[in-house]
Amino acid sequence: MTDVSPSGEQHSIGHGRQHAVITEVGATLRSYAVDGAAVIDGFGLTDMCSSGRGQVLAPWPNRLGDGRYSIDGRSGRAAWDEPEKSNAIHGLVRWLPWQLRSRAQNVVVLGCTLFAQPGYPWQLELVVEYRLGREGLVVTAGVTNADEVPAPFGFGFHPYLTLGSPTVDAVRLTLPGERCLTTDQRGLPTGDTIVAGSELDFTSGRRIGSTQLDTAFTALWRDDRGIARVVLDDTETGRGATVWMDEHFGYVMAYTADTVEPAGRRRQSIAVEPMTCPPDALRSGIDLVRLEPGASWRAAWGIAPR
Predict the structure, then answer these.
(1) By three-state DSSP, how is residue 265 classified?
(2) Is there a contact between 200 and 180 (Cβ–Cβ < 8 Å)?
(3) Which of 70, 105, 162, 201 could pair covalently with 75 via S-S, beta carbons 3.0-4.6 A apart?
(4) pLDDT tens digit string along 70-104?
(5) Per DSSP, what are the bridge partners of residue 128?
């Protein structure tokens, strides 16, 4: 009997010194390395993905309170996969099989049909392309509304960055978000606040140290092309990486992995999660994408190692 990985078929791509593996299950970025040194803290071939590592988050990123919402007369009832907080989390496609659409040495394109179901009563066609090149890893996401009515959704990604040190304490983080969301004990937004002068102010760059982050930042500074950049520099190893995102991603979650299991993996990496909307957006309606029938949407982000 042939052994089957919990994450399904493995799609390897390479360019020069770079190598990445994307999985059939969830179109998940399982590994990304340069010269054999890990850029993301992923998971093994024989492991099931945990803590959202490298997953695609759609049709909503982050938490959805009570898994219940109603939009334009259609109601969603998503199962709680964070039952201790009565939340549905990170959408529905991260555990679905994604079909290979095309591939080359340095690029792979995977697609998935999200059929209407209790947790999301619309139909979407999703495509994600992973491409390695001189600029590093570029990820392009596409969504087409295959339903007969306008479809609301949010999109996100969940890579954990590692730069070689045992913990993230030595990482200098530059995160150009002027505001961050405040949350309740369930991780659901209650409002937002200015970060200036607080422990969460990383706009000018500083060591993470003992700061614990599980925080969504917004009001992102962007260049003249609409690109926002989160910059990480390890003060011990000298390695660095930039996570960039286009104008479609108005939020970025930073998570220092203080609560992941097993406990031995805590604070070994930092999740930098581009998101198109805040947590709980299907209930609040804030910054949801609303696609007309037959219309398509595209967005891009990437990782540039140094």
Answers:
(1) helix
(2) yes
(3) 70
(4) 999 999 999 999 999 999 999 999 999 999 999 99
(5) 110, 141
d(CA 3, CA 208): 41
Sign of CA dihedral 58, 62, 65, 70: negative
Q: How far apart are the first and last CA of the chain?
A: 42
- Whether the Cβ atoms of residue 158 and residue 63 lie closer than 8 Å to each other: no
Residue 119 gets the label, from left (phi > 0), alpha (psi -120 to 50) or beta, of: alpha
Under DSSP, the state recorded for 65 is E
What is the distance between the alpha carbons of residues 113 and 96, in angstroms, rounded to a whole number? 9
Residue 211 token pair: 């700061």
Q: What Cα–Cα distance (Å) separates residue 181 from each residue in 20, 131, 187, 215?
A: 32, 32, 10, 7
Is the CB of residue 60 less than 8 Å from the CB of residue 114? no
Q: Would you put residue 284 in left (φ > 0), alpha (ψ -120 to 50) or beta?
A: alpha
% residues pLDDT > 90 (the chain): 99
Q: Pairing mode, if any, of strands 68-71 and 74-77?
A: antiparallel
Query: pTM for the complete prediction?
Result: 0.96
On the CB side of 140, CA atoms within 13 Å amount to 9
Two structure tokens written together for 296: 């398509």
Q: Kindly report the backbone phi and psi dihedral angles of residue 276, in degrees, each rounded to the nearest multiple of 5, phi listed first.
A: -80, -15
DSSP 126-157: EEEEEEEETTEEEEEEEEEE-SSS-EEE--EE
